[in-house]
Design brief:
Elements (H helix, E strand, L loop, with lengths): L1 E5 L7 E4 L9 E11 L1 H7 L9 E6 L3 E9 L11 E5 L5 E3 L5 E5 L4 E3 L6 H4 L3 H14 L6 E5 L4 H12 L3 E5 L5 H7 L3 E3 L6 H8 L4 E6 L4 H7 L3 E9 L6 H4 L5 E4 L6 H12 L7 E6 L3 H10 L5 E5 L3
Parallel strand pairs: 4-7, 10-11, 10-13, 11-12, 13-14, 14-15, 16-17
Antiparallel strand pairs: 1-2, 1-4, 3-5, 3-8, 3-17, 5-6, 6-9
Helix pairs in contact: 3-4
Length: about 325
């Protein structure tokens, strides 16, 4: 089969030929139709998970994937051949990812069936980005009616976070460049702040002098995240998806939250798929391209400036 992989940590992603996977006990074999591209993918190629999980080489990239079950091990009970599914193709080992024609994955991974009302291309955009948005809001734990600032709302995670926050009854304050304003309002943002106009903390304090209830920061480093904490009222919440939340910066202001580390499970992924099927959650698709363009798209992701999700069509 064909796949996009790296031969070692730090190597450039390339198209390679590999043997088609054979299912082991508890596994299913998925013929992939689409893979969602995430910044996490190029970070894995650069060694993000080195020393944390076993790696196999060549290391097939990709976490988000959607396709049809082609075969199952005799002991599998959750799925059967022909099922359409979406899931996270990172389960215990790094290197058997979704940038491939086929992938074998444990039936107990974060996998969910995809109804006919949802395309596999759309479903492939969900696990990492929508999952991160869902878990960040869960960690923030704000009641309906609260204000939440979503920093870096114009990317894939941010656009999912805007929608999910609105569905939870929150007042959504999104940050993004001027060219994202209209689309963020369409997704449910009540206020859109252009962070290029003035320091974000300054703009927030001018609008909300008593402080906002919470922040989900998808973009800032430690210093940038810490600078925003003055705009959250004492006892509020602040979450970073980039590991930028230091406890000694949160504690003096009585803030809860911290760094997001959790991944969604199968039940949560199924909930997201259901929201898409019901029309409650839109897929913020920026581009759909051939899997052959994956190396170039990973480089573009690393350069930043995403305005939604990139999905790779497995069209070898």
């Amino acid at each position: 089969m064909k796949a996009i992989a790296v031969t070692k940590i730090g190597a450039e992603p390339q198209e390679i030929e590999l043997a088609k996977p054979v299912v082991k006990p508890g596994q299913i074999l998925v013929k992939l139709a689409a893979a969602g591209l995430n910044p996490f993918d190029w970070r894995v190629a650069e060694g993000l998970l080195e020393g944390k999980l076993p790696h196999i080489f060549p290391l097939v990239l990709g976490v988000d994937g959607a396709g049809e079950v082609e075969a199952i091990a005799p002991d599998v009970t959750r799925f059967r051949p022909g099922d359409r599914l979406v899931g996270s193709f990172l389960f215990g080992v790094v290197g058997a990812g979704s940038y491939a024609q086929y992938a074998a994955i444990d039936q107990h991974a974060a996998l969910a069936q995809v109804p006919d009302a949802v395309s596999l291309n759309a479903a492939a955009a969900l696990p990492v980005a929508a999952g991160a948005a869902l878990k960040a809001l869960e960690k923030l734990a704000l009641p309906a009616g609260s204000q939440v600032v979503i920093v870096g709302a114009s990317g894939g995670v941010g656009r999912f976070a805007v929608q999910l926050a609105k569905l939870q009854g929150l007042t959504v304050i999104a940050t993004g460049a001027a060219d994202s304003r209209a689309s963020l309002h369409t997704l449910g943002a009540d206020v859109v702040i252009d962070h290029h106009q003035a320091p974000l903390a300054q703009q927030l304090l001018q609008r909300y002098p008593q402080g906002v209830d919470g922040i989900i920061d998808l973009a800032s480093d430690v210093d940038g995240f810490s600078a925003l904490l003055v705009s959250v009222h004492h006892g509020g919440a602040a979450v970073s998806t980039l590991g930028a939340a230091l406890p000694d910066r949160l504690r003096p202001r009585g803030l809860h939250g911290g760094n997001l580390n959790a991944q969604i499970n199968a039940e949560e992924l199924a909930l997201l798929v259901e929201k898409v099927a019901r029309g409650e959650l839109q897929i913020p698709l920026e581009r759909m391209v051939s899997i052959r363009q994956a190396p170039a798209m990973l480089a573009a992701s690393k350069a930043g400036g995403a305005r939604g999700k990139t999905v790779l069509n497995i069209d070898w």
